[in-house]
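Researcher: Last one for today. Full complex below.
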Amino acid sequence: MKRIFTVFALLTGLLLSYALYQALIVAPTEKTMGDVQRIFYYHVPSAWTAFLLFTINFVASVVYLIRRSSAADALAVVSAEVGVVFCTVVLVTGPLWARPVWGIWWTWDVRLTSTLVLWLIYVSYLMLRRFSASGETPVLAAALAIFGALDVPLVYFSIWIFRTQHPQPVIGGGGSIDPRMWHVLLINWAAFLCFALLICWSRYRLEVLKREVEEMQALEALLQPRGSR
Amino acid sequence: MNFLYAAYAATWIIHISYLATLLLRYRRLRKQIEELRRSQ
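Model: Here's the assembly. Have a good evening.
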């Protein structure tokens, strides 16, 4: 398993380097925005990866509520945490693109605000998991995750539903994109998906190990003679 | 061009910082496992 992980990590590193080369060198320069448009190759794949991870969190939370499976609960924590990391990238790269193109860092537009709300929901989910010591925490967190997942389609479809300053979506948005840009975008998404999978894999192993240690510590506390407690 | 480099750099700073926290948490767990082994 360790060898598979190492090989996968190396391949992901190579793919990320190739994707970076494609984004900076191979992709054509956009006529009106110029080079700053290349932020798109990091911003959009990060957003899609975050949406996918929050969807995994939703499915894992539903499975946990039905079956009370510890593995599903661990997967829910992992996907939420890595999803927040990718959503942070979206919220940081977005304003860095907006400043030279729109002339402002931020506007309280529906797409931007709903993305910020999505990030806040999952940060509160992680804080609940981190600071609540109640035995019911996984159940409460799963309920919050289901509530939070409702914001994912709202973020994605907000461009169709509301009038917004944000550019139209790449998929099914009516706008057109150069096939070479599509190619580079898909390579970058594949690279970020592999990277997300790699981080989730490490984080899942860490979560399982942490739970085992906590169980051992609880067992040890129970087995200690009364006087030494 | 500066905004482009800032965005790419920020992306990798965020990811590398997260990977560093994972490494720290992993080290802390290894320490706890060692302590548990010693106490047994």
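The mean pLDDT of chain B is 93. The two ends of chain B are 59 Å apart (CA to CA).
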